[in-house]
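The freezer alarm interrupted the setup, so I double-checked each line after restarting. Inputs confirmed:
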Amino acid sequence: MEMAPWIRILLLLACLWFPASVECMVRHYKFNVVLKNTTRMCSTKPIVTVNGRYPGPTLVAREDDTILVKVVNHVKYNLSIHWHGIR
Ligand SMILES: *[C@@H]1O[C@H](CO)[C@@H](O)[C@H](O)[C@H]1NC(C)=O
Ligand SMILES: *[C@@H]1O[C@H](CO)[C@@H](O)[C@H](O)[C@H]1NC(C)=O
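Predicted 3D structure, all chains:
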C-alpha cells in the first residue's frame, strides 16, 4: 500500500524539526513470498521463502527510522510474517 502524501510531509517535517534526528529516514523493503525448491539430505521439497531466501532478509535501520515493508504473498495459502531481533 502506498503511503499517503500527508504522512510523507509529516515525516519530513519531523526530520526538519528535530535536527538531532536529522538522520531519520523511511526505509522501504519489498518481500515477495514465494515457494522455492530446496534439497536437503537428498530430498527436494518446496519451502516458503522471502525473495527466494530462508530465513528472510535482514532489515537494517537506525533508531527513529520508519520501515515500510510491502509483502506480496505469491503462495496459495495464508501466512504470517514475524521478526527476530527487534528491541
Ligand atoms: C519444484 O519442483 C517440482 C518438481 O520438479 C516442480 O514441479 C515445481 O515447479 C518446482 N517448484 C519451484 C518453485 O521451482
Ligand atoms: C485467507 O484469509 C482470508 C481472510 O481471513 C480468508 O478469507 C481466506 O479464505 C483465507 N484463504 C485460505 C486459502 O485459507
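Quick read of the result. The chain has a mean pLDDT of 85.
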